[in-house]
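Q: Please design a sequence for this.
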């Protein structure tokens, strides 16, 4: 083979290898571009999904703000599912009252004894301190957790007239109020309860005079206490009503069921707009006995937004726990917790 032919052969090999290398590089570039395009597309899709989820929660909040009444029932507009479509995604928004339950931190243990899932070991756990979320008790409840969750919550303020005084002590100590100041308040409240004296509003605390009680102590605890009921009587479960009425009215089982049925029928037909409406079905004395536990307004809600693709494939779920209160005759809603 001549020298020229050899050079031509080498040149051909070099060209072929160059083509192969360029092809590999080009393929890699194409794959990288495709990957980047896919990542960008997925990122945009995720952003759209997140936007719809946030929009769903805001729809729920706006629904709560639009409520025109001071009382809430299971027939209110906010109890209806909100459905729609945005950014080619479908959404469903549900709002649920989660405050009309017993507060596991505060309510008397005696109210829990009628429930089969309650036991004294749970009381020992609670004596260790207040819990911020019921899920922290999941291991303690074991298989009964789902059932207990229907009736228990950690949301709501301490009721000066009805709740466990040892819980107020735990609360005050957690607010870094010293034991002397805490003892003054606890002893005073215990004395008032023995005399069957009721606090009608927390303003009375401002005028409270106890030797050695600091004004700063009252200021610290005021945001966490109330004299009003936490449980919306229009929405509370029947078993919860039964637990309260059986204890407070001190009547037999048959009489308790009679009053419960009257309440259930009345709230279904009319809606209880004011607790005094119940004078139509029970005496003033009996009504006064249960009033400290109840309200007709819901304050704590769970807003759940579920996102689906156009073909109804599940994409995402967002949960927001919110608190609603009225100020200057308008509802204000504050997000307390966000879960994705």
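A: Design:
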């Amino acid at each position: 083979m001549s020298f020229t032919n050899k050079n031509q052969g080498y040149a051909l090999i070099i060209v072929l290898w160059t083509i192969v290398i360029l092809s590999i590089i080009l393929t890699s570039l194409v794959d990288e571009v495709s990957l980047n395009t896919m990542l960008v597309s997925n990122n945009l899709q995720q952003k759209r999904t997140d936007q719809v989820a946030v929009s769903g929660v805001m729809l729920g909040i706006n629904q709560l703000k639009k409520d025109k009444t001071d009382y809430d029932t299971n027939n209110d507009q906010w109890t209806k599912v909100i459905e729609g479509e945005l950014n080619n995604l479908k959404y469903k928004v549900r709002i649920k009252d989660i405050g009309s339950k017993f507060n596991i931190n505060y309510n008397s243990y005696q109210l829990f004894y009628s429930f089969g899932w309650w036991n004294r070991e749970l009381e020992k756990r609670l004596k260790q301190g207040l819990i911020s979320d019921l899920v922290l008790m999941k291991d303690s409840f074991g298989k009964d957790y789902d059932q207990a969750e229907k009736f228990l919550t950690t949301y709501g303020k301490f009721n000066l007239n009805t709740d466990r005084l040892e819980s107020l002590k735990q609360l005050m100590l957690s607010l870094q109020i010293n034991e002397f100041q805490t003892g003054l308040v606890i002893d005073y409240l215990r004395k008032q309860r023995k005399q069957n004296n009721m606090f009608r509003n927390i303003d009375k605390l401002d005028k409270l005079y106890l030797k050695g009680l600091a004004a700063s102590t009252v200021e610290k605890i005021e945001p966490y206490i109330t004299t009003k009921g936490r449980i919306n009587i229009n929405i509370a479960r029947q078993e919860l009503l039964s637990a309260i009425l059986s204890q407070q009215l001190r009547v037999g089982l048959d009489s308790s069921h009679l009053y419960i049925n009257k309440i259930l029928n009345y709230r279904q037909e009319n809606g209880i707009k004011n607790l005094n409406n119940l004078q139509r079905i029970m005496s003033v004395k009996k009504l006064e006995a249960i009033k400290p536990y109840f309200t007709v307004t819901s304050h704590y809600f769970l807003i759940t937004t579920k996102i689906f693709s156009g073909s109804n494939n599940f994409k995402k779920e967002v949960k927001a726990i919110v608190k609603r209160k009225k100020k200057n005759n308008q509802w204000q809603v504050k997000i307390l917790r966000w879960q994705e």
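Q: Thanks. Anything notable?
A: The CA atoms of residues 38 and 44 lie 10 Å apart. Residues 230-297 form one domain.
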